């Protein structure tokens, strides 16, 4: 469990008075040699008594504790004693520890519990050295302590790296499986091989991540690293909410997320909108599927809801069909849509008139509130509305005209 491979080279670089003298090295080798006959006993004590203090260790299968872990302990102790006696050990000797670390990661043992076994073993080895040391071997003990600390650091580093590499590989494989499940659900492919019942229902979300503003004064989708970071934050927050894995599939405009149908949309605003770290705008469309076969249609609905909420300038939030029902209905495929949208053609060169009609709608036909929003006089609002009525032939100050303008604006915004 230690590494003294660089000790001699380091000693050669230091003044002689700073390194252990030949007599101390010889005594340390002799002490280590006397301990070698105790290796089997100590490994047995570790697996039968000292490691059992760890709850996760006690839950391991009996054969793993008495065979595999005991063998690893024996190899670790012998490795240290060989190096303590001045015999070089090849770096390949670390392979058994890194392989065991990868196995423990695959089995789900916590890294802290795995590392604790190495520190417990190091303490047991130190106790053995102290019990075996003879009077006058204090300098040899100090040398062995230094060697043990160096070796323990090398082994712990190698074990930690191997464990984390295996865990990351497992996580990557798990995420890829989740992406494949999400893709299959969204495209209507069979998902029985993933253990998903045909009757399972889902809450389907369409997430659109947008910049709060652009140089042109509008909004545009986040792209590249910024988009991926935002979606990762969203996934992490949702995993904490549902206490489990989240199915996510990215596309060119954001991504789809599938959650258990029991999740309430009222609980989603904070984890979704709160994921905006740089002031970006996050629009989420939400719809529920009846079963697995219904997921593609539901995803199309949630995407349309998100598109409408985005195009109509709604703030960051989670939107369901009821929130955009009129716009959703009016923006559906129909032969009359182009004709209805053409209502605004006469105002193409008068953007202030379009902005005034929109503000008039947004402020419930209150001319004074509309004027404040536009930073103009209320009479200016009246004049602009009258001009729009004259140019289009439809008066936005009437109920029927107001509905026509609302529909035309929605259709224009949705392209």
UniProtKB/TrEMBL annotation:
Domain called RsbT co-antagonist protein RsbRD N-terminal: residue spans: 41-176
Gene3D superfamilies: PucR C-terminal helix-turn-helix domain
Residue ranges of domain PucR C-terminal helix-turn-helix in the record: 353-410
One protein family per Pfam: RsbRD_N
InterPro entries attached to this UniProt entry: CdaR-like_regulators, PucR_C-HTH_dom, PucR_C-HTH_sf, RsbRD_N_dom
Skewed-composition ranges (Basic and acidic residues): 15-26
Span list, region Disordered: 1-27
Name the record gives this protein: PucR family transcriptional regulator
Species whose genome carries this gene: Actinomadura gamaensis
Organism phylogeny: Bacteria, Bacillati, Actinomycetota, Actinomycetes, Streptosporangiales
């Amino acid at each position: 469990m230690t590494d003294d491979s660089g000790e001699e080279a380091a000693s050669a670089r230091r003044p002689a008075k700073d390194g252990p003298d030949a007599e101390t090295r010889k005594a340390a080798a002799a002490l280590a040699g006397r301990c070698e006959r105790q290796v089997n006993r100590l490994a047995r004590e570790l697996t039968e008594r000292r490691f059992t203090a760890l709850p996760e260790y006690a839950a391991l299968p009996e054969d793993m504790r008495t065979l595999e872990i005991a063998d690893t302990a024996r190899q670790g102790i012998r490795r240290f004693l060989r190096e303590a006696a001045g015999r070089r050990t090849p770096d390949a000797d670390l392979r058994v520890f890194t392989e065991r670390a990868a196995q423990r990661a695959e089995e789900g043992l916590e890294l802290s519990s795995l590392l604790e076994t190495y520190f417990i073993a190091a303490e047991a080895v130190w106790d053995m050295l102290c019990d075996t040391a003879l009077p006058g071997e204090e300098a040899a003990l100090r040398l062995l302590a230094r060697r043990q600390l160096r070796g323990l650091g090398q082994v712990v580093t190698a074990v930690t790296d191997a464990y984390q590499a295996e865990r990351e590989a497992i996580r990557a494989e798990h995420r890829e499986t989740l992406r494949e499940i999400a893709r299959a659900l969204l495209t209507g492919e069979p998902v029985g091989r993933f253990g998903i019942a045909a009757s399972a229902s889902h809450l389907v979300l369409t997430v659109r991540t947008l910049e709060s503003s652009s140089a042109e004064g509008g909004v545009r989708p986040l792209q590249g690293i910024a988009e991926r970071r935002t979606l990762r934050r969203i996934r992490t927050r949702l995993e904490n909410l549902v206490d489990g894995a989240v199915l996510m599939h990215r596309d060119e405009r954001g991504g789809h997320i599938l959650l258990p149908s029991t999740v309430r949309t009222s609980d989603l605003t904070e984890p979704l909108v709160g994921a905006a770290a740089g002031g970006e705008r996050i629009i989420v469309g939400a719809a529920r599927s009846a079963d697995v076969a219904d997921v593609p249609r539901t995803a199309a609905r949630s995407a349309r809801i998100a598109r409408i909420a985005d195009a109509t300038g709604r703030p960051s939030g989670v939107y369901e069909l009821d929130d955009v029902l009129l716009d959703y209905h009016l923006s559906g495929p129909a032969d009359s849509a182009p004709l209805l949208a053409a209502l605004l053609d006469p105002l193409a060169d008068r953007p202030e008139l379009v902005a005034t009609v929109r503000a008039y709608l947004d402020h419930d036909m209150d001319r004074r509130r509309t004027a404040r929003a536009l930073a103009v006089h209320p009479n200016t609002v009246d004049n602009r509305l009258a001009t729009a009525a004259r140019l289009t032939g439809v008066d936005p100050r009437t109920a029927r005209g107001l509905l026509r303008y609302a529909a035309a604006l929605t259709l224009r915004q949705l392209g």
